[in-house]
Design a protein that fits this description.
Elements (H helix, E strand, L loop, with lengths): L1 H27 L2 E4 L4 H14 L4 E7 L5 H14 L3 E5 L6 H4 L5 H19 L4 E3 L9 H12 L5 H4 L4 H10 L25 H17 L5 E6 L2 E6 L4 H4 L2 H13 L4 E4 L10
Parallel strand pairs: 1-2, 1-4, 2-3, 6-7
Antiparallel strand pairs: 5-6
Helix pairs in contact: 2-8, 5-6
């Protein structure tokens, strides 16, 4: 008898969170959504459209050295699917020596550049607020830094304020038939470079090209290429390992990674690490 009661409590709690989220968004009246096309930002954008209407919502995507062109294209397509206007801004994270340093505060400088760059667009469109996708269960590490940047620029985080978890958002996204409920979360290309290793355009481009080869030509949907100087460490889903280690596929990968400038290639047996967008 305990399990049905627990399910009832879960449902009641979720409905309470959803009502609180709707109230938060309604109070903002019009918003620019920092949009990367992952699970949380897509659900947030869809709810903003539902509550405020498409005329009062703008999806803002980013063109930058730290985001791949394919992720930008996917994000723009998702905004169109949801039915809101979308604008793409150029951010210049690599102009900031503090970001290039690539220490543990990197995410703060990245988000600060994004939120600062969104301010003129928000004013141009006559919108009241900027919102971002940070959620409650990630109140540590990179996401704590993201919240610090949000507070600095008066950016709201409605999903965080309503205390949603990622699993709750995934279930709600699935109910709405949003195109990302089973999609691995995205993360900026700078996350592929070890902390403390200075960031360069060349290294970020290597990662972007290597992942594009694996994703587009091998159809590996979930893939990360970690950059360790001349060594590329591949992280893939466990279900793809058997195919990747086949001799012909393995040789193809080695040749492609060499085209990207890597001389050594390894497969991380731990698999794809969880990252968030």
């Amino acid at each position: 008898m305990a399990l049905p009661q627990r399910n009832h409590l879960d449902h009641t709690e979720l409905e309470g969170k959803r009502s609180h989220l709707y109230e938060i968004i309604a109070s903002l009246e019009s918003v620019a959504v920092a949009f990367q096309g992952g699970l949380t930002s897509t659900y947030l954008l869809a709810v903003c459209r539902d509550i405020l209407g498409p005329a009062n919502v703008l999806a803002v995507t980013t063109q930058s050295s730290v985001w791949s062109s394919s992720e930008l294209a996917e994000a723009r397509a998702r905004a169109v699917f949801i039915g809101v206007p979308v604008e793409t801004i150029e951010t210049r994270e690599l102009d900031n020596p503090a970001f290039v340093r690539n220490d543990r505060a990197r995410c703060f400088y990245c988000k600060s550049e994004l939120f600062a760059s969104m301010q003129p667009l928000m004013q141009e469109w006559g919108l009241n607020s900027i919102v971002c996708e940070v959620i409650a269960e990630e109140d540590s590490g990179d996401y704590r830094l993201a919240m610090l940047a949000a507070q600095r620029y008066n950016v709201r985080a409605p999903l965080y304020e309503a205390q949603f978890t990622r699993d709750e958002i995934r279930n709600l996204a699935r109910q709405r038939n949003l195109p990302i409920s089973n999609r691995a979360a995205g993360c900026c290309l700078a996350s592929r470079i070890p902390c403390g290793t200075p960031l360069t355009v060349e290294a970020l481009d290597q990662v972007s090209l290597a992942e594009a080869f694996l994703r587009d030509e091998l159809n590996l949907r979930h893939v990360r290429v970690r950059h360790h100087g001349n060594l590329a460490a591949l992280e893939i889903s466990q279900e793809d390992v058997a195919r990747v280690v086949q001799p012909s596929v393995r040789r193809w990968i080695i040749n492609r990674m060499r085209e990207c400038g890597f001389t050594h290639v390894t497969l991380d047996l731990v698999g794809l690490r969880q990252e968030h967008s």
